[in-house]
Design goal:
By secondary structure, the protein is mainly α. It has a domain of 226 residues. The chain is built from 19 helices and two strands. Strands 1-2 form a two-stranded antiparallel ribbon. Helix 9 runs antiparallel to helix 10, helix 11 runs parallel beside helix 17 and helix 12 runs parallel beside helix 16. The protein is globular.
Amino acid sequence: MSDGLVPLLVAVPLLGAVLAVAAGLVSERGPPAVAGGTLAVQTILAGWLGSQAIAAGPLSVAVGGFVAPYGIELVVDGVSAVVVTLVAAVSLALLVYAIRDDPGGTAFYTEYLLLVTGLSGMTVTGDVFNLYVFLEISGLATYALVASAGTGRSAVAAFKYLMFGTVAASLYLLGVGYALVATGTLNMADLSVELAQAGYDSTLVLASFGFIVVGLATKTALFPLHTWQPDAYDDSPDSVSALIAALVSTVAAYALLRLIYTVYTPAFFEAVPGARTALVVFACVSIVVGSVLAVAQSRVKRMLAYSSVSQYGLVVVGLAIGTRAAVFGAIVHLVGHAIMKGGLFVAAGTVDDVLGARTVEEYAGLADRYPVLGGASAVLMLAMVGIPPAVGFAGKWYIALGAVRAGAWPVAVVIFASTLLTLAYFARLIERMYVAPATTPDAAATDGGVGEDLLPSSPPVGRLALVFGAAVVAVVLGLTVTDLQTALEPTLDTLLS
């Protein structure tokens, strides 16, 4: 029974997008109401199916009854259950921000739901071509959302994103084409068998791996394929930057995990150790350069964007190392980063709205004015650094532990160095918030304590709840990481076998 409901993870947000258009013809309030109801249903459905997959084993369905290799298979296992639930829950939570941000009409909510459709489809598909289709759906929706600010800067950022995204999707599709020529199938499970028979060291298989990795690395925004990201994050509407920072590259990195371990399998790295080495070096460069670029930024949203370049490098290096601890750490960091970075972008957008502060210097005295907002933001920053017991520490710990167990000591050193650099740029912000005097001392207010003179705008309660909730979840996830490890143990066994 549960297996038959898996297609609804794609159908529900897609139907919601259609209904949002219809509702917009009737009332201006219709599209946000439809979006909220759709994402509430999606979150409940994803949570329930995810719990079934973790408790009873993977769920799968051949769409239309056509079995592999000709049919399209949808699969929910332990890891995809976590990611599809993350997509649904985070998009629902950030809708509160989006509605308050007044994005401007039916088109926005339709694009929002189409993005959720694409990301959900990428998460549950068991077919590499179908993954391309959902990659394009999510990409087109994201380009439109970035441009929805309606400014020249957002249009340029969206165009740059479109150019990079189109090249990335084309490279991925080219890799899929090579895999099809080598094996005659597009189903992930079949590909894992046929690629082994074709020979991992064959030119076609190596070409397919290279093109797919570069395509998805561009979508994930690893250095030097990251240059679309800072502008997309900085020039899009605040609610959009929070959404794409939390989910878009997260799902692209998940897709990379899925293809490496479900399609190519660990045996590929054993047969072609140079591929593992290249991926580790690629990721380590992204970790270091992303951190250095983040330190050099004065604008907060650009700092957070370059931070993501580094953090996704950590995820990919965990996948490349391939030990159980490293892969689990990559999954933990992937989920934790979505929560932490989403919360930080909501905080940055809120500070911009209430104070007009966009640079590190302009954050002076923030914690005195808004103690709840400042405190929750500081917790998220420290969690991103990797201060225990937050989830940022747990993810880095497992990745570093996996590197040490694999004898990859240089990777452990890189992780430690990036942690110090992360502390460097977030410490600047925390120092400005808590130590530096306010630049406008006559404008004092609080968001959770006793205020004297209110600023022209006080933080909306909904946004405060989002930032505070993200901080709480970041800590709770760190405390419950061993439970997550137990829940994902069967899936990890399958992926690493």
